[in-house]
Design brief:
Strand content: 5-15%
Largest sheet: 3 strands, antiparallel
Number of strands: 5
Oligomer: single chain
Strand order of the largest sheet: 1-3-2
Structural class: mainly alpha
Helix content: 55-70%
Shape: elongated
Radius of gyration: 20 Å
CATH topology of the largest domain: Four Helix Bundle (Hemerythrin (Met), subunit A)
C-alpha cells in the first residue's frame, strides 16, 4: 500500500540484522492490518510469525511492541496479542481534524488564487480516478484519492500540516477501508468510492467557477463521507464480529 496507508519510518541504519528483520515484520504486518487482510479482533501468534519469517521470536516481539504502541495491536497478559478493534472516537477525531485543517488549507489556496493554474491537472486526476472506479481498482483509487488531497498542501508549502491531520491513524485508515467496501450499488447510494470521485469533480468545478461558498460546502460534504456511509451502514449498526470499539453511552 502507498500514501495514507504508508507511514514514514525512521531512516537510520538498524544496529543489527535482528533490528532490520523487526522493521520488515513490522512493516508487513502494518500493511496487512491497514488493508484489512488481518481483521480487527484476530489473534496474532508470535510463534507462528517466527516460523513464517524463519526467525526467532525476538524480532517478532519487537515488531509486536511497536504495533501495539501505534494502536494497531492490543496485548493482554496471559491471552496474547490481538488486532485492535477500530476505535470510533479516534476515527471521529481524525475526521474532524481533516475537515478543519484541510478545508482551511484549500480555501487559503483558493483565496490566494493559487488553484487556477492547477485546474487542468486536477481534472485529469479526477478522470483517472473515474477510470479506476469503472474498472473496480479500489486499491489504486485510494492512492489517487490521497494524491489529490496532497496536492492542495504542496501548492503553498503547507505539507507540514499533513502530519497533524491524523491521516496515518490506524483506526481512521481502516474505517476508510471499510467505507470503500460498503454497498457498491447505485441503487442504495452508499458507495463511498462513487462519492469520492463525484465529489472531487464538484470540488474542481467549484474552483473553476471561482465559487468559494460551493467549494467550502463540497469540502465539508467530502470529509463527512465516512459518517454517511460507514456509520450508517448495517455492518456498523449490527457489528456482529466485534470490529468496532464504540463510544460508551452517556
Amino acid at each position: 500500500m502507498k500514501n495514507d496507508l504508508t507511514i514514514v519510518r525512521d531512516q537510520a541504519e538498524p544496529s543489527s540484522p535482528s533490528a532490520t528483520l523487526a522493521k520488515e515484520i513490522h512493516h508487513a504486518l502494518w500493511e496487512e492490518i491497514c488493508s484489512l487482510k488481518r481483521r480487527p479482533g484476530e489473534k496474532l501468534s508470535e510463534a507462528k510469525l517466527a516460523r513464517e519469517y524463519s526467525c526467532s521470536r525476538i524480532p517478532v516481539r519487537e515488531a509486536v511492541k511497536q504495533l501495539a504502541a501505534e494502536g494497531a495491536l492490543e496485548v493482554f497478559p496471559q491471552r496474547g496479542s490481538f488486532i485492535s478493534r477500530i476505535d470510533v472516537s479516534e476515527v471521529e477525531q481524525t475526521r474532524y481534524l481533516r475537515e478543519v485543517l484541510e478545508t482551511r488549507v484549500v480555501l487559503d489556496d483558493f483565496d490566494k488564487g493559487l488553484l487556477d493554474p492547477f485546474v487542468t491537472y486536477l481534472r485529469a486526476m479526477v478522470d483517472q480516478q473515474q477510470a479506476l472506479l469503472e474498472c473496480g481498482d479500489h486499491e489504486k483509487l485510494t492512492d489517487m484519492d490521497t494524491e489529490f488531497h496532497n496536492l492542495f498542501y504542496m501548492i503553498d508549502g503547507k505539507s507540514f500540516v499533513m502530519e497533524h491531520t491524523g491521516r496515518a491513524n490506524i483506526h481512521y485508515i481502516r474505517a476508510r477501508r471499510f467505507a470503500l467496501q460498503i454497498e457498491r450499488s447505485e441503487e442504495k447510494k452508499e458507495d463511498d468510492s462513487i462519492n469520492i470521485v463525484s465529489q472531487h469533480r464538484r470540488i474542481v468545478e467549484a474552483v473553476t467557477r471561482k465559487d468559494r461558498a460551493a467549494l467550502e460546502q463540497e469540502l465539508l460534504l467530502h470529509f463527512r463521507n465516512i459518517n454517511a456511509t460507514l456509520f450508517s451502514s448495517e455492518i456498523y449498526r449490527t457489528d456482529q464480529n466485534g470490529i468496532f470499539r464504540k463510544k460508551e453511552p452517556q
